[in-house]
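User: I'm putting together a teaching handout on how multi-component assemblies are represented. Below are the sequence lines for each component of a complex, exactly as they appear in our records. Could you produce the 3D structure of the whole assembly as structure tokens, so the students can see both representations side by side? Please keep the chain order the same as the input.
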Amino acid sequence: MIGNIIKTSVVLVIGTTMINAGSFNTQAEKDRKALVSYFMKKFSNPAKNKTLFPYANSKDFENLMPVKKVEDFRLGSYAYNKEGRSQYDEINEMPPYEDNVDAGEELYNKTKGIKQCFPDPTIAGEYPKFDQKKGKVVTISVAIDNCLKANGQKPWKMTKGKIADLEAYFASKTKEAGKKVHITIPSKEAAEAYERGKKIYYSQRGYLKLSCATCHVQGAGNRVRREVLSPLLGHTTHFPVYRLKWQGLGTLERRIKGCEKNQGENPHKPGSQWMSEMLYFMAYMSNGLPVDGPDIRK
Amino acid sequence: MRKINRLVTVLGLGTALLVLANAEEVTPIVKEASKLDVKKVCDVKTNGLEKVLAVAKKYNPEAIKLGVEFKRLGIRNSVYIKGLEKAIKAKKPEVTLSYKKKGKVKKKTFKTDYATWRACTFAVRSLQQVKEAQKDYHLAIPGDGLK
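Assistant: Of course. Below is the structure of the complete assembly, with chains in the same order as your input.
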């Protein structure tokens, strides 16, 4: 009996390992589909799903528009926030980031090595990537800085300035080309990095004991003071963003640092394993959505 | 019937083995911190300032190592601890801490016993959250624990 149990258990373990080895994104795809289904259910008719908006009053429900297509989530909270959407559309008539895109194009053409490192500028939807040789996740900001270093130059600050301008150029070219977010999980190590990123995203931290998901999964669509919280789905599609609060353009890393500060924890360094792996998870969740950057946010 | 029972047992054991193989372990210091009663160990009146600060000094380095150090009002917990060491030694009733905000150096003053309590709870809770997250993070995932 015991011999049989051991034998069958070993067969089970080996079998499961072999199945997992076949496609490294099986779990990630399962997570993504469940997330899409959660958000579509939640926002297809918010008034019908009142239990998912526990703190909303009747005025809040009046402000929530139904989301018809999953692609609309590329707009973040403006996919369902009526008031926010009208302000967003108004500002977008004269986008404040156009000069940044031009500056980014100049940096792309004039900075030593950049054109060689990134011959195709329509790459915004492909990052973060798992670098098989280095065995780690590389965000677009990290890839740019690696390129600068390889060409004997000083790396740029990963939150704003030149790096945000160049990323705005990449995002704008990717959007023009009509490309979608396409994050891959090519190996077991990449799948492990994805899982670590997922755990970071869903773990409660800081003196407020909040996880990212508290606000951007369960909390998405709920109101904090005057702001309607944005959804995880589509979060990475529109960066870099011109934030009215910043009065300038900033990268995804800059925004994450702000979120962490609000959670009550010491923000992690842009380019760190912690931040890159979390961004890897976040970007994977937006797979298949159109790249929509650069954009504006409050 | 016996065959079904055997199959169920085998499947159960197999799953348990898989779960055990995938379960991540926390560091011994996180385990130790998880067993503490924060209200008791960080009680300044009962334990005294030195003892409470010693608790903060013991656990905060692990929080930094794991990337879960707390920060409140722009001040990292390690800054609280550093400032408190001097203030308690000099028996000062208040502690003034410096921190940076948008590139400028700013200062904030706290009562020493209050800041000591905060440093201790921040250090211990940050590690307790690591242990809690091991089992709780699944509960927030759509398609997993979130129904």
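A couple of points students might notice: Chain B has one domain: 25-140. Chain B touches chain A through 33 residues (CB under 8 Å).
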